[in-house]
Design brief:
The complex is a heterodimer of chains A (about 325) and B (about 260). With about 325 residues, chain A is an all-alpha fold. Chain A has one domain: Orthogonal Bundle (ABC transporter involved in vitamin B12 uptake, BtuC), CATH 1.10.3470. Chain A is about 75% helix and about 0% strand. Chain A contains 14 helices and two strands, in the order H-H-H-H-H-E-H-H-H-H-H-E-H-H-H-H. In chain A, strands 1-2 form a two-stranded antiparallel ribbon. In chain A, helix 12 runs antiparallel to helix 13. Chain B is of the alpha/beta class. Chain B folds into two domains: about 160 residues, 3-Layer(aba) Sandwich (Rossmann fold); about 80 residues, no CATH class. Chain B has ten helices and ten strands. In chain B, helix 3 crosses helix 5, helix 3 packs parallel to helix 6 and helix 6 runs parallel beside helix 7. Chain B is globular and about 55 Å long. The chains are: A mainly alpha (about 325), B alpha/beta (about 260). Chains A and B meet through helix 7, helix 8, helix 9 and helix 10 of A and helix 2, helix 3 and helix 4 of B. The complex binds adenosine-5'-triphosphate and magnesium ion. Magnesium ion binds next to helix 1 of chain B. Adenosine-5'-triphosphate binds next to strand 2 and helix 1 of chain B.
Amino acid sequence: MASRGTLIGAAAFAILAAGAPLLPQWLVSLSTIAFANALVVLGLVILWRTGLVPFGQALFYAIGAYAVALLGRYTPVRDVFVVVIAGAVCAGIVAYLVGFLLARYREIFFAMLSLAMSMILYGVLVKTETLGSTDGFHVEAGSFFGWRPQGAMRNLALFWLVLGCCAVAAVLVARYFRSVAGALAIPVRDNEIRVEFLGISVDRLIHLKLVISGILAGMGGALAALAVQHVDPQMAYWTTSGGFVFVTILAGAGSVAAAFVGSLAFELVRSIAVDLLPGAWQLILGSALLLTILFLPEGLGSLYARLRRRKEETAP
Amino acid sequence: MSAILSVRDLEKTFGSVVAARDISLDVPAQQTVGIIGANGAGKTTFVNMITGHLSPSKGSILFEGNDITGLPSRTITRLGISRSFQVAQVFPSLTVTENMWAAAAIARGRDSIIARALTPLDTPEAKTEADAAMELFQITRYRDARAVTLPQGVRKLLDIAMAVAGSPRVLLLDEPTSGISIEEKFGLMDVVMSALKTRRITVLFVEHDMEIVGRFADRVLAFYDGTVIADERPETVLANPRVQTFISGTKPAGEGAVHA
Ligand SMILES: Nc1ncnc2c1ncn2[C@@H]1O[C@H](COP(=O)(O)OP(=O)(O)OP(=O)(O)O)[C@@H](O)[C@H]1O
Ligand SMILES: [Mg+2]
């Protein structure tokens, strides 16, 4: 039995997929990046629900992206499905390993440790000449089961790929939120001692969240690398991580859908702001975040819940 | 009669502070043990060691014949020893029902985190169990209230109800009536103790109120300065002059201070 949210989500994905060929090129490209990044945001939402904010999630984003780039450079593997899964798996493995340390920390220590780890990767990438140092390097165009679309068709195909990945991720994460491990996010945030004394390890719960969010970030990075056809150390830099945190706060941790809506809204506002006020787009984005925090402290996602509540209140 | 819980030569030091020493005792199944002692006597430290919150510096703890000394608290919980806290530990932003679901769901599942990610939280079994527990502890009428808004007594009951969700065989209650008015204390203890009796749980409870101890305990441990100075039936312990001097604060009539 599908819930109302699932139906609305499925309809939204179907409309986007069917309507994409009618959209202008720039909007397709923008949405591709927005939804690839939304996967990273979805991972942050998982952590944020327990009160954890990693300032270095770009670590996993960059690992996913570089995995795709390296596969293109050193192996004959070009299939987009294979390279995206490879990017996600690599990031997941790194998340599993750093999770042994990270899962023991909370609050600002967690945030800073995560930041430190991403900066180590950034430093390594900048110093590695075979990987193009600060310039990064080119990412080979992928093939879709042997099909190699060009130009506008390639953009569309990538958009559909990203949408497909997002749909799968949305379904799985929504299911995870209803599971014991996922639903304990608020209890963990509220009272770790009680959770431990009920018989479950908080550190292990957080470790699992780290791995899931790492996989999502790696998948997002892999898709972004394919879309941009270029990787560089900037993908691991703290401003990239900060951008993801920004969108997470904009979106709110209330629902899976919020990550996608928030990410799309962010990319749209940014692109419009850059067009209108090239020198002051940060000002506009900053104000948007400020207004969100002031008037929608639970993020854009809470808007829908509010509207629904109002409708219920006015219903006869 | 074999003991469900046995403690041998238990000791805990914090730097130079000796919070527990030379504690040895056996608790038979389904006994109700009251623990008394002045502030800082080591009652909470004792409870913390049994439940794995603190590792003893020395000594051993056996539960149903198995050594559980120094195991992590969640393992001890899963083995069958549960506890409530001096300050009630609940999930403030969840409702009473959601608190109970969380407790029931955690208690039912296997230890694997992956398995936890694949089982839904609100299974019909967990819901039924949560409903039954709320009935048993008489908190059903608060079921939709957020825990943060609960009166102190109800929050204490919720804390204990959550601790019982895992069907423990031994339950340790650290000051179940602290922060509760004199009038309400007996009512709360009546609810708790009769609930625990129906579940046949062995209980150790820390309590400052001697009347409550006398009414509900089968046996009393009197703590003083980290060690047990009396361990007998309540009426005997409460009449013990040392206990009266050091713990209940009432000097026995006609006697001066008794030196330890
Ligand atoms: N974590 C700790 N670090 C240092 N000293 C501690 C710690 N926990 C307890 N103590 C000390 O151990 C002694 C026993 O404390 P404990 O909390 O067990 O007493 P209590 O009998 O529960 O007292 P109360 O009635 O106030 O709850 C006290 O002197 C206390 O200061
Ligand atoms: Mg105490």
